[in-house]
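not sure who needs this but someone in the group chat was asking about Zinc-binding alcohol dehydrogenase family protein from Umezawaea tangerina so here u go. i didnt clean anything up, its just raw.
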Amino acid sequence: MKALAYEKAHALDAFAVDLVDVAEPRLRDKDLLIGVRAVGINPGEAMVRRLRGAEAGGRLVLGWEFAGVVEAVGPAVAGFAVGDRVMGTGDMARDGAWAERVAVDHRVVARIPDRLSFVDAASLPIGGLTAWEALFRDGDGLAAGVDRVLIVGGAGGVGTLATQLVKSRTSALVVSTASRPESREWSTGMGADVVVDHTADVPAQLRDAGVDQVDLVLSTAGTVGNIGWITEVLRPFGYLSVVDPTGPLDLGPLAAKSVSLHTEMVFSRVTAGYDVGGQGRILAGLGQDVVAGRVRPITTTVLHGLTADTMRKAHELVEGKRTIGKTVIEV
């Protein structure tokens, strides 16, 4: 089958992802074989491409956000059949979905509701799962006493879905950060009650908006550089959820306020083998939220055809750090 693959880690200006012939995926007992119809593009995949190369003589196929059709099921699969429309993520230790077909554990995927297109379905898994697990520590609700939530990076994929999930499932006030007029408008449209500019004085902007402190901060980008003002706006015994734990993070100011710190990585259930089926359940719930009109898909840019050119364009958009919503490639 055809897949987009590369050998050595590389920067965008030396983009070396090519369409090549690769072996068909090998199904494990709990796997689904899925014909890929659309893939979402994520900053994490661009980071992997820059930092991780294949072993000598090998190649890497990335892509951990997809929508498609079940073509085969393993002998230990329950609840899925050939022909089902599904969306999901996968396993970073295996080949991803930048390919005609991908094999994944059936517990990390969910059926796509009939009214949802493959393109829009592919915009949901990574951002939805990350936001859900970062915010809802007790099932599907915020921690007790959390009435004010601040989302750093409100116009990105995680931030956009986090805003919608909080507004649709709780009565909490949502503050989003956005630095450009178009990203501010998008964040407001997704339900943010207050939008502030993270490149300016955030505490002062919050005071001007009548918000003295917040109970929970979800930081999707720039956490290390923003930790000073994040600590200032968090109340004592508040909560900080971080999805970009890169670089040294000074915990001293957080400790002075007894802040609870949660780091979030969407593949943890698969990597650790812990409640793997929880991922599929969250995705199924997200699909029902879309059907009920509580959550909107976040596709803003659609590229057509799984080619080296479209993937390079997608990575240019992601690495430009000005993307609103989600870029999806329709296969």
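also The chain has a mean pLDDT of 95. if thats useful
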